[in-house]
# Entry
Amino acid sequence: MRAPLSIVIPTLDAADDLPGTLAALAEGLEAGLIRELVVSDGGSADATRAAAYAAGAIFAQGPAGRGGQLARGARQAGGDWLLFLHPDTQLGAGWSRAILDHMRDRPNRAGHFRLAVRARGTAPRLVSGWANLRARAFGLPCGDQGLLISRRLYDAVGGYRDIPVMEDVAIARALAGRLSPIPAIAATGAGRHAQGGWVRREGRNMLALARYLMGADPERLARASTK
# Structure
């Protein structure tokens, strides 16, 4: 019987982040959980491809855009279950056991991890606290929290949309009432927030989320985020 889980990671110049993320997956290999790793790349100019091949991953390259990359990676994956991770998200100890329990006990539900930010201070705690509250209270986990979902359920809700931003929110809304927390940590890197300023970055994220939920076009939101 083949291992049930395909892991899909969208990348764009992620060579610095991938080693830590891949190292954290070792316990899943030891548990016989992981069938394959799919790195869905958006045209990296660094050593991302080499890092993926060194890990034995399937490397699928195409146009950049996280929604499209996630969808492309899912098409390449052959597992009965899919786990979508960002390239700077490192799963905490015990994640494989938690996933096996979820597969057994909640086969008709998707799952997400509890977010932590790999940085010290008040701002990182507030960012992770808001993300976890958003997931718990509103059923809208962010992409940094990962998404575990059966192939059957993924196909039933139409999978990831090929949109430049808010792909995580779009699929969470499609999964309304069918998302559960997984009792393990997903620790994300602090780079994007640290570079843009913690308060400014999170404020822009919250504004973009509110605009999307009110019907704003993801293409327009993506253009605004680069200004």
In short: The mean pLDDT is 93. The first strand starts at residue 5 and ends at 11.
